[in-house]
Write a structure and sequence with these properties.
502 residues, D-Maltodextrin-Binding Protein, domain 2, 6-stranded mixed sheet, extended, single chain, 4 domains
């Protein structure tokens, strides 16, 4: 078939248009590809938080580094983690030299310039003290103590929420722990991961960690405000490595580098359970030989019975020891009354019984007035004696029927079963008058001791929870403090309904 000149011309134009279209397609595809997805995403981290992020022989390592590398595989990007001083790392991301920050905790200031991912790594901001230091049991005991923290790290911000702590900025964690051992610091506050790793690496001894952290948070990955596309990819990748178990595998691998601490109670627990295991093994061996030696004389049978009896006695002793440990765990060491754990158990039981029987349940919350000033004036030993005296006088008045608890610091709580608010207020005022008349057995102390008391009572029902009653007593105590101290305030005297759940 022969084509005319006009048809040949049309065909040539068509082919030219198709060729031009293909060229434009590939040009724009490559351009958009480069705009939407660079070769490498740079993440910045704090170089001083081993084993989470750190440098070793020029290479960046750490548990979060492993997580980010795995994250890059899931979102289809090459990633690079760079470890710098923390201030410099944050500045670089804000200036656009990097796309994200790792191992960062949100705060109001950061929320203004960064967007934060889903949860990354659990952080327990814990108190490290010198072994044998019994004066520090929780964050309340850090008042007037020298506490080492990293500059501009989250513990630095966290401790500023508490009054009276002498915050000392340390150059690095090794130096901080050395200052702790030498007595230049009373405590160091740091993420448990970081503190335990540093102690293991530097082999610093005579340092212990308190069981209860000041605060537990989950760190995040932060992007510059408005980088929604990257943040969505990061969250999708985090969900994937959490769902398929990759995150747990990485964390477990790095947990082997941490130090395991045994408190005195844990040591007792280990010793007792080891003894039970050993005795159980001995019992099995004894039974085996009893069966093997059944044909021996009656004298041997008597001996075997004696050994079995001894084992029973040992088991009974172990059960008694376990029961004693359980009791000790619910008693305040200083005042020898119930502690917070003991209160939680007793209060929940009273709440359920009162709800079932539809009887009133009352709480009296007590706070020693100006106790910090008392401590500062006469010293902590005098303060301890004051706490013991107050606890003893409260017990004398309420008797054995009701539960008295040291709620924390200079605060006490009394659970009064089957007691109305008016009845509880009478008891509370009796306690107030008795404490006002109290003389602490110390010739150097002249200041009178007074207390403020908040009273609340309710008949529990399904629309309330036990915390509502605690909060109501707390509000009443606040009113007593606000109105001049050394007085009793009731929940019903508070203007707002204390049992109205917000």
């Amino acid at each position: 078939m022969t084509l005319s000149k006009r048809e040949i011309k049309r065909l040539s134009i068509l082919l030219l248009v198709l060729a031009l279209g293909l060229i434009l397609f590939f040009v724009f595809r490559n351009a958009f590809s480069k705009e939407g997805k660079s070769d490498t995403i740079v993440f910045y981290g704090n170089k001083n938080i081993a084993p989470i992020v750190y440098k070793e022989k020029g290479k960046v390592k750490g548990v979060v580094v492993d997580i980010v590398n795995e994250l890059g595989k899931r979102i289809g990007y090459k990633v690079e983690v760079k470890a710098l001083d923390w201030d410099e790392a944050q500045s670089k991301v804000l200036q656009g030299e990097g796309r994200a920050l790792v191992q960062i905790n949100p705060n109001p200031e950061r929320l203004q310039v960064f967007d934060f991912s889903d949860e990354l790594l659990r952080s327990e901001f814990s108190i490290f003290t010198k072994v044998g230091n019994a004066t520090i049991k929780n964050v309340a005991d850090l008042t007037d103590k020298k506490v080492g923290v990293e500059k501009k790290g989250y513990p630095y911000e966290l401790l500023h929420k508490f009054d009276g702590i002498k915050i000392e900025v340390i150059p690095n964690w090794k130096t901080g722990f050395e200052m702790l051992v030498s007595g230049k610091l009373d405590a160091v506050v740091v993420d448990r991961w970081i503190g335990e790793y540093e102690l293991a690496k530097s082999k610093i001894r005579d340092v212990q960690i308190l069981d209860e952290p000041i605060e537990t948070q989950y760190s995040r990955i932060a992007t510059k405000k408005g980088d929604i596309e990257l943040l969505s990819l990061i969250n999708a990748g985090l969900r994937e490595i959490n769902d398929d178990g990759t995150m747990d595998a990485i964390v477990s691998r790095w947990k082997g580098k941490r130090v395991i601490y045994l408190t005195e109670e844990k040591v007792r627990w280990v010793v007792l359970h080891t003894a039970v295991g050993v005795l159980g093994f001995v019992l099995l061996v004894s039974l085996f030989w009893i069966k093997k030696l059944q044909k021996l004389s009656k004298g041997l049978e008597v001996e075997v019975k004696q050994r079995t009896h001894e084992l029973d006695e040992a088991n009974a002793l172990l059960r008694a020891a376990n029961a004693e440990l359980e009791r000790i765990s619910m008693v305040d060491e200083l005042t020898e009354i119930s502690n917070r754990r003991g209160f939680d158990l007793a209060f929940q039981e009273s709440w359920e019984i009162s709800k079932k029987d539809k009887r009133p349940l009352a709480l009296v919350m007590i706070d020693i007035d100006d106790f910090k000033k008392y401590n500062d004036t006469y010293g902590h030993l005098a303060g301890d004696r004051c706490l013991k005296c107050v606890a003893e006088e409260i017990k004398k008045i309420v008797g054995m029927r009701d539960q008295v608890t040291r709620f924390g610091g200079e605060e006490f709580l009394i659970i009064l079963d089957n007691t109305t608010e008016d009845e509880a207020a009478i008891i509370a005022d009796k306690i107030r008058k008795r404490i006002e008349e109290l003389t602490v057995n110390d010739a150097d102390i002249e200041s009178p001791i007074t207390i403020s008391l908040g009273v609340a009572a309710v008949i529990p029902n399904d629309s309330l929870c036990s915390d509502d009653l605690v909060n109501a007593a707390d509000k009443a105590l606040y009113k007593a403090k606000r109105d001049g101290k050394n007085q009793v305030a009731t929940s019903s005297s508070v203007k707002t309904d204390p049992f109205q759940i917000a």
